[in-house]
Design brief:
This protein is an all-alpha fold. It contains 21 helices and no strands. Helix 14 crosses helix 15. The C terminus is likely disordered.
Length: about 475
């Protein structure tokens, strides 16, 4: 069990390093492209990615999680899942092309058809690497997985920026979406060393297909619930408004989603192996949960307090209207940090049907919030969405943890210390804004306020609230595992 702990923490460190690198690359690319391209060009590609994002949810068929979650799995079963993934990829490429006329009618924008035609083959490419990445994840080779993802992000950033500089416009954003799946698939084949056999299907894969199908349906429902507003904004207010909303949404979600995905991949693999040992299961889950909360909670307050400076520094002055949307979306950073880890909890112990049921209740709530806020523009949608999620937080959490080794009181205990430290840091920034808020340079303001926020938060959390030993223990295990 100690070996599992060391592999989990070492893998977690690798995943965290990769996610931090990915966030910096994405934000750096965004900073450059926001100054080379127009908001309307971002909005045009966002019109398409609303649809391709839905289709992409079916690309793995949930079979990555099925491969990892299974206690025992044969090579024949993995090969069967590979061919299922390939078949799914071919079907999705055809569906992508078939949606082009519908999308053109919705947006009255003919350029979306050509963009979809270029993006369609990516679904086949992505499908051929799904099981190779699952094999690496099952083996907990997270250092290799992290290296592959970093290389893919670097290549995508370089290609997108070069194309933008050469005047390719929105095609730079299309290339930024195409390069990662191609790179990851090639690298996964080389790194895993695994090669699929000829198709052979038996009853052993039926439960995995059922598990994967439930996960996929869950992801689909969540995606629609969290992304339908983009289609509504694009249709009602045009590509420029969607571009502004989309970049604010990206600023609010890229750092925290990267963190949740990084920690979640490690946690899911480890928790699946501990699902019958309730004491260790609870301990592992709460450690992963507190790491997510310790990051998302201060990030939410930071974005709320400094939305204007963040937008001015990251995107430039012509994107300033996105600041209001970013501020109104900032509560969702924390809410997603509290809700999303609960899916690891449920799925790792086989409660994937409950996870789907939660999503089926949440989706209508979020869609209703979009419709309520839509008459008031992108800011109205952002406010309504954040309000709906805040109201849903407690009943959702209570439902998710019911009958599991984790209780509501466990979650509250892990949240209270990061909350107090975040409030102390926020009050420090509010005082400093009164003292030096008149500075004209947004970058200087963001540096001063951001540095002060981080130092006060870390000092309060580690020393005043006594969390130093928790993080030192993680570092000690990391050094030993190295």
């Amino acid at each position: 069990m100690e070996g599992l702990k060391e592999r989990s923490i070492r893998g977690g460190a690798a995943r965290m390093a990769a996610q931090v690198s990915a966030v910096l690359l994405r934000l750096g690319t965004l900073v450059i492209l926001a100054r080379l391209l127009e908001p309307a060009e971002f909005g045009l590609v966002a019109m398409v990615t609303v649809v391709t994002g839905v289709i992409e949810l079916f690309a793995t068929g949930g079979l990555t999680q099925a491969t990892v979650q299974r206690a025992e799995i044969t090579e024949s079963e993995v090969s069967a899942l590979f061919w299922v993934n390939v078949a799914i990829g071919v079907v999705l490429a055809i569906v992508c092309m078939a949606t082009a006329p519908i999308l053109q009618q919705i947006y009255h924008e003919p350029r979306t058809t050509l963009i979809l035609a270029v993006l369609a083959p990516a679904f086949i490419v992505n499908a051929t690497g799904v099981q190779h990445m699952a094999v690496l994840q099952r083996q907990m080779r997270y250092v290799m997985i992290s290296a592959i993802e970093i290389v893919a992000q670097v290549l995508a950033a370089v290609v997108a920026v070069v194309m933008a500089l050469l005047g390719w416009g929105y095609w730079a954003l299309v290339a930024n979406a195409l390069v990662p799946p191609l790179t990851i698939t090639i690298a996964a084949w080389l790194a895993s060393g695994w090669r699929p056999r000829r198709p052979h299907f038996d009853r052993g894969i039926v439960p995995m297909l059922h598990f994967g199908g439930t996960i996929t349906l869950n992801n689909l429902v969540c995606y629609i619930g969290y992304n339908l507003e983009k289609m509504l904004i694009g249709r009602s207010f045009g590509s420029e408004a969607l571009g502004l909303y989309g970049r604010a949404h990206q600023l609010a979600n890229v750092p925290t989603s990267a963190l949740i995905n990084g920690v979640g991949g490690i946690s899911f693999a480890a928790l699946a192996r501990l699902q019958h040992d309730h004491a260790r299961f609870k301990n592992y889950f709460l450690k992963g949960y507190v790491l997510v909360i310790s990051t998302t909670l201060p990030a939410a307050l930071f974005c709320f307090l400094l939305a204007e400076d963040i937008v001015l520094v990251m995107l430039g002055s012509r994107w300033i209207e996105a600041a209001d949307v970013l501020r109104l979306l900032s509560p969702t950073i924390l809410i997603f940090g509290m809700i999303n880890p609960l899916s690891w909890l449920m799925q790792s112990i086989g409660l994937h049907k409950r996870s789907l049921q939660v999503a089926l209740v949440l989706a209508p709530i979020t869609v209703a919030s979009y419709l309520i806020g839509l008459p008031y523009g992108p800011s109205g949608v952002a406010l309504a969405f954040s309000t709906a999620l805040a109201l849903w937080l407690f009943p959702s959490t209570l439902w998710c943890v019911s009958g599991t080794p984790v209780s509501i009181s466990d979650l509250l205990e892990t949240t209270i210390r990061p909350l107090l430290a975040s409030l102390a840091a926020a009050m420090t920034v509010l005082v400093m804004q009164r003292l030096v808020g008149h500075l004209d340079l947004p970058l200087l303001r963001l540096t001063i306020f951001g540095g002060s926020f981080a130092m006060v938060y870390a000092a309060f959390l580690l020393f005043v609230l006594g969390q130093k030993d928790f993080y030192l223990d993680i570092l000690r295990v990391l050094r030993g595992a190295s």
